[in-house]
Design brief:
ACT-like_dom_sf (chains A, B), EC 1.1.1.3 (chains A, B), Dihydrodipicolinate Reductase, domain 2, homodimer, alpha/beta, six-stranded parallel β-sheet, 428 residues, Alpha-Beta Plaits, Rossmann fold, threonine biosynthesis (chains A, B)
Chain lengths: 428, 428
C-alpha cells in the first residue's frame, strides 16, 4: 500500500508527540487511515540541536520550502506556531493542493476564515482540533456532534496556566504572585506569562469555539477580555465563603442569533460541573437548546494529549483524501454576525465595596442600584478589622452589563464609597 | 434543491423529538446537510392515537413496508426499539440501499456487527450515536476523536435510572425500595425496572462502547453484569464515610490487547470526576494511552437530547450520501478479541464482614487474605450496636478477581465469619 507522506512543520513539544504517536501506533493508524503514514520531512530551526527523540537526520530541514514545495508531500502538519509567516506557508501549501492539520490557535483565531476559504477553493482540508483544549475533541463535537442543535452558551476553561494558578490560590490560600512564580518554575507558565494571564490565549480559543458553535465568523476583536492578574486571595476567599470558585471563563452566548463572547475571571457556583475542573485540566461546557447541558473534560495541553488530536485529524484528512472528498465537508459558518450591545448582555455580578461606616450609606448604595434597575439577590454589610471602612458585598440578579457599568460609575463619584474593591461576573 | 426524504420508524418519545428538531431547525439543517430534510412517512402502532404533536395524518402508516419498500425514501431513522423484527426491517432497508440512523442499543449490542457488515456491502451508512448516553456524542469521539490513540479504560455511568436511584439513596439516606417506587412515579423508572436495575441496559451500552474503544467485536455475553438491587443504604453510608460514592459503573479495560468488560455497583473515590455525576445525568470517562484522562458529560436520555444525536447522525448520513461515500468510512473493528481471565482482571475491593467478636478472629481473617496474596490497604474492626457480631471493613490493594473470589469462598467455610455482608469493586 502506498504510504501517505506527511511534512511536519515544527519539532517542539507537540511535534515530538506527533512523531511518537505516528511511529508508536503505526499498525493501528494503518487500519484507521487505510495506508501507512510516514513523517517524511520535518522543519526545525536548528538541525544540530539535541533532541529527546532519535530521528533520521536526513528528514530534518531548516528550509520550509523543502516541505511546502515538495510534490511528494501529501499532508502538512503545522505545529510550529507563529502567525504571519505560518499563514504564508500554509496558504502556499494549500495552493499546491496539500491538506493541513494545525494546532495553531493564534493563526486560526486571526486568519481562520481566509485559510478555510482557500482550502475549500483548492479541494483541501484544514483540520485544527488541537488548537483548542488539547486532547478534548471539542471542535468535532461542535461541528458534527451538535450539528442538529442550536448552541445557546459555551463556557470554557481553555487555558491550563491560569486554571493552575487559580486552583492553587483557592486550595492553598496563596497569592497570585507567589503561585505565578511557582508555576513558572514548574514550567506551567511561560517566563513572559502575559498571553495566558491576561486572557489573550483564552480569547483566541473562544473565537474559534464561538465561530463553530454559533456558525458565524467571530473575530478576536469581538471578544471582550480581562485577565486574572488582579484576582486577589481575598476575592477567592469571599467567593468560597459564598459557595463559589473563581475561574477564568470564556463565555460565549447566543440568543435570537445575537451573540456575545468574553473572557474574564468569573465566580462559578461550586455545584456547577465546571467549578470543580482543577489544575491544568481544561473543560468546555456546552448548552444546546435541545441537548441541554453537556461538558467535555480533559488535558488541555501537553505533548501527547495535543498530539492525539493532531494525529486523529491526520487520520481524518487521509480518509477524506482517499474518498476524494477533501475540502468538501460543507459550510460550517453561514450566519450573519450580530453582536450584542452592552445593554443586551446580561448576567449576575458580585461587587465588593469599601464604604464609610456610618448611617445611611447602605440606603444610598442600594438606591443607586434601584436607579439603574439592577435588582439585588443578596447584600451583606460587615466590619472588616483590616480596614477603617465597612465592607459591602453585593450579588445582583441578572442585570445588563451596561446598567452595572452605570452603577459602578455612579459609585466612583459617590464620596461615601471609598473604593470599588472587586467586580466579578457570576455564573451557575 | 431536492429534499432528502426520511422514513421514521417509531413516534414515541425520541421519534417525537426527531420530528420537532427536523421541523424547528429546518433552516439550520439545510445549511448543514446541503438540502432540505423532510420526514416523509412515519411508522406508528396506532394511527388513531392522540399525540402531543400535530402531524399530517397522511404521513402516518401502521405498515413498516410502506416505508422500507418505498424507493422514494432515502434514509431510515429507527427509534421504535425492539430487536428481532427491527433487525429484519433494517436489513431489508439496507438491502434496498437505504442508510440508517438508529437509537437502538439492544439491536446494536446484539446484532451490530451483522448490520454494519450488511451496510458496508450495500454502500450504506448505519450511525447509532443515540444508542449510548443520549445527547453525549461519545460514539463519534471514540471513532474519530481518539482514532489515533489506544484506549486503556472506559468507565461509564450510562444508565440514568440507576444513577437517579443511587444519587437519591446517597443524598437522602433512603432505601433502594423507596427510591425505586418514587422513580417509577416520576417516570424515571419503568413499571418493570429489571433491565435498568439489573444492569442489562448498561451492559448493552458497554458492549457498544468497548467494541469501538478497543476496535474488537465485544459481545453482550462477554460482559459480566451485576445490578444495584442489593445495594443497601448502609453500604452507601459506609462508602461515604470512607470518601466514596456508590455508582453503577460500566468498566471496560484493555491491557496488551486483552480486554475485560463489566457492569457492577462500584465504590468510586469522591475526588474522581465521575463520582459527582448525579441524578439522571450520564457520563463516560475515557482514559487513552496518549490523551490521558477525559470525561464526557450530559443528558443520557429524554426526548430532545436523544433526538439531537439522532438528527446529527442524520445530517452526517445525508452529507456522506451527497459526497458518494456512504458505507465507505473504513474499518472501526479490526482486532482479534482476547478476553482476560478472572486472574488477569485486577482492581481494589471493599469487603464488609460480620464476624464473631472474640480474640484471634481478625488475625485469622487477614491470614486468609495473605494465603491468596491479596494485600490490604485498610482494615477497620468496630462494634455495631445493631448486630451481636463485630464488623470488619476491608479495602484491598489491587488484587485479581480470582484471588478475591477464593478469599470469599474461604470465608464461607470459616465459622467465625457469620456473613459476607457486602463486596464492591473500588475505583479512583
Amino acid at each position: 500500500m502506498k504510504p501517505v507522506k506527511v511534512g511536519l512543520l515544527g519539532l517542539g513539544t507537540v511535534g515530538t508527540g506527533v512523531v511518537r504517536i505516528v511511529e508508536g501506533h503505526q499498525e493501528d493508524l494503518q487500519n484507521q487511515a487505510g495506508s501507512p503514514i510516514h513523517v517524511e520531512k520535518i522543519l526545525v530551526q536548528n538541525k544540530a540541536k539535541a533532541r529527546s527523540l532519535t530521528i533520521d537526520e536526513s528528514k530534518l530541514t531548516e528550509d520550509p520550502w523543502d516541505i511546502i514545495a515538495d510534490p511528494e508531500i501529501d499532508v502538512i502538519v503545522e505545529v510550529m506556531g507563529g502567525v504571519e509567516h505560518t499563514r504564508t506557508y500554509l496558504l502556499e501549501a494549500i495552493a499546491r493542493g496539500k491538506s493541513i492539520v494545525t494546532a495553531n490557535k493564534d493563526l486560526m483565531a486571526l486568519h481562520g476564515p481566509e485559510i478555510l476559504e482557500a482550502a475549500k477553493n483548492n479541494g483541501c482540508d484544514v483540520l485544527y482540533e488541537a488548537s483548542v483544549a488539547g486532547g478534548i475533541p471539542i471542535i468535532r463535537t461542535l461541528i458534527e456532534g451538535f450539528s442538529s442543535d442550536r448552541i445557546i452558551k459555551i463556557m470554557g476553561i481553555v487555558n491550563g496556566t491560569t486554571n493552575y494558578i487559580l486552583t492553587k490560590m483557592s486550595q492553598e490560600g496563596a497569592s497570585y504572585d507567589d503561585v505565578l512564580k511557582e508555576a513558572q518554575q514548574l514550567g506551567y507558565a511561560e517566563a513572559d506569562p502575559t498571553s495566558d494571564v491576561e486572557g489573550l490565549d483564552a480569547a483566541r480559543k473562544m473565537t474559534i469555539l464561538s465561530t463553530l458553535g454559533f456558525r458565524t465568523n467571530v473575530a478576536l476583536d469581538d471578544v471582550s477580555v480581562q485577565g486574572i492578574s488582579s484576582v486577589s486571595k481575598e476575592d477567592i476567599l469571599y467567593a468560597k465563603r459564598l459557595g463559589y470558585e473563581v475561574k477564568l471563563l470564556g463565555i460565549a452566548e447566543c440568543q435570537d442569533d445575537q451573540i456575545s463572547v468574553s473572557v474574564q475571571p468569573t465566580m462559578v457556583k461550586q455545584s456547577h460541573p465546571i467549578a470543580s475542573v482543577n489544575g491544568v485540566f481544561n473543560a468546555v461546557y456546552v448548552h444546546g437548546e435541545a441537548v441541554g447541558e453537556t461538558m467535555f473534560y480533559g488535558a488541555g495541553a501537553g505533548e501527547l494529549p495535543t498530539a492525539t488530536s493532531v494525529v486523529s485529524d491526520l487520520v481524518a484528512v487521509i480518509k477524506n483524501k482517499k474518498l476524494g472528498v477533501a475540502g468538501r465537508q460543507g459550510a460550517m459558518v453561514y450566519k450573519e454576525k450580530k453582536l450584542k450591545t452592552d445593554d443586551q448582555i446580561s448576567s449576575k455580578y458580585f461587587i465588593l465595596l469599601h464604604v464609610d461606616d456610618r448611617a445611611g450609606v447602605l440606603a444610598r448604595i442600594t438606591q443607586v442600584f434601584a436607579e439603574y434597575e439592577v435588582s439585588l439577590e443578596s447584600v451583606l454589610q460587615q466590619p472588616n478589622p483590616n480596614i477603617p471602612e465597612a465592607e459591602i458585598i453585593i450579588i445582583t440578579h441578572d442585570a445588563s452589563k451596561a446598567a452595572v457599568q452605570q452603577v459602578l460609575r455612579s459609585f466612583e463619584s459617590l464620596e461615601t464609597v471609598r473604593r470599588i474593591k472587586s467586580v466579578y461576573r457570576v455564573e451557575g
